């Protein structure tokens, strides 16, 4: 549940930075950097450990470690609590403490690496796919790109367009799911159709096998239109 987990640095990079920090603090310090593959790591199995450094917000985790150690027949660790440094530059939406989550938020919009040149890809049109759950900001980002001159293709609108009477998937959908999904005015009742497919993987696949190829075709048509417009 980390914020922007996709931007967390690889383990090797994080370990190298930790090693550099430890050597700066005290070159003679003996240390062992261990990758954590579970919430506890070696803290609940290493009999040689004596102390665990915690912060105010991780103290409960330290107490959970001691509980596990007792269950494993090991002595409790001394919990040494430190204060976390405040970040004087933090924004309203960031954590008050110095935090890697805040740093990752600030990376948004930053080019992380140079674009890869692929000779098999045409230079234009350059297609960007915006995906994400409800409320994730797709519409806002699309508007920003639109202001910068991007040609916008709304897949939601295309999804509705394939169902309308005369639309490319209309006849196939009605034939596959029956006349009971059709309203008196000839339109497809999406609620009735939804009740037939959601929760039923076989029926849902039957629907998407009809609709998605038509949507993909419409998207490609609009991409060609965008290319023609320059």
TrEMBL record:
Keywords: ATP-binding, Nucleotide-binding. It holds the Pfam family CoaE. This is COASY synthase. It comes from the Eukaryota. GO terms for biological process: coenzyme A biosynthetic process. One of its GO terms (molecular function) is dephospho-CoA kinase activity. InterPro entries: Depp_CoAkinase, P-loop_NTPase, Rossmann-like_a/b/a_fold. It comes from Pluvianellus socialis (Magellanic plover).
């Amino acid at each position: 549940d980390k914020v922007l987990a996709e931007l967390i640095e690889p383990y090797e990079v994080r370990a190298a930075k930790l090693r550099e920090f430890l050597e700066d603090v005290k070159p003679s310090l003996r240390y062992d950097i261990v990758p954590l593959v579970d919430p506890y790591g070696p803290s609940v199995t290493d009999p040689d450990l004596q102390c665990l450094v915690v912060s105010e917000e991780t103290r409960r985790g330290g107490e959970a470690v001691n509980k596990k150690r007792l269950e494993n027949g090991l002595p409790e660790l001394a919990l040494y609590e430190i204060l976390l440094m405040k970040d004087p530059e933090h924004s309203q939406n960031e954590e008050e403490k110095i935090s890697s989550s805040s740093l990752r938020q600030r990376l948004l919009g930053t080019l992380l690496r140079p674009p890869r040149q692929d000779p098999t890809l045409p230079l234009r049109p350059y297609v960007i796919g915006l995906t994400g759950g409800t409320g994730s900001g797709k519409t806002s980002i699309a508007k920003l790109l639109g202001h910068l001159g991007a040609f916008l293709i709304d897949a939601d609108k295309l999804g509705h367009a394939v169902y309308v009477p005369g639309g490319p998937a209309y006849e196939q959908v009605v034939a596959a799911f029956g006349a009971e999904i059709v309203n008196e005015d000839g339109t497809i009742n999406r609620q009735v159709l939804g009740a037939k497919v959601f929760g039923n993987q076989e029926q849902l696949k039957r629907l998407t096998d009809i609709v998605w190829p038509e949507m993909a075709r419409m998207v490609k048509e609009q991409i060609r239109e965008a290319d023609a417009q320059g």
